[in-house]
Design brief:
There is one protein chain. With 212 residues, this protein is α/β, with parallel strands linked by helices. It has a single domain, classed as Rossmann fold. Helix content is 42%, strand content 25%. It is built from 7 helices and 8 strands, in the order H-E-E-H-E-H-E-E-E-H-E-H-E-H-H. The strands form 2 sheets. Strands 5-4-3-6-7-8 form a 6-stranded mixed sheet, with helices on both faces. 38% of the residues are buried.
Length: 212
Amino acid sequence: MTEAPSFIELAIASRVLQFGEFTLKSGRISPYFFNAGLFQDGASLSALGGFYARRMLSSGLDFDVLFGPPYKGIPLVSSMSVALARDHGVSMPYAYARKEVKDHGEGGQLVGAPLKGRVLIVDDVVTAGTAANEAVQMILAAGAKPAGVLVAIDRQERGADGSMSAVQSLEATHGIPVLSIVTFSEIVEYVRRSQSAAEIERMLAYRDAYGI
């Protein structure tokens, strides 16, 4: 059974997922907005890590290290690692990156476990795919291999060229799977059951205009 409704309810309760009209960086007017930075207390972050851990385990994906791109990927990969150990007895090494290379102390851009073997990238959402592509380059530069990407939401919308989504582009470019806890289609189904008719119309219109 999908955990999508429970995850959506957590996101709404934490005001991470909001409905209305939001101007995205792309210029599109979206009927919803997801801001993982608003998971800002211990209880919600603990629950979030549990969702990530269970989604990863249900996928059957094989990997050796978890990796969080800066900056939102850092608390996500940390909470997921804790949830794996706490709830499933799986002690998984994890690492994260700074945006800037540190030139003192231990130095470098990477923090935590060494990137080696197969590395799972953990982030909030794939929009243009920039952060995930940069993470893949860091992994390759370290001599490791990307195993996949795990995000909270697959927006399921076309990229700038209109031919495929950012998720599909990542999968095609790097030959890796992109997993999500919830998809835009599942958010639409939740809205059908819980939101106003006007909200449903906005979600469906957005899917018709930009959906893949």
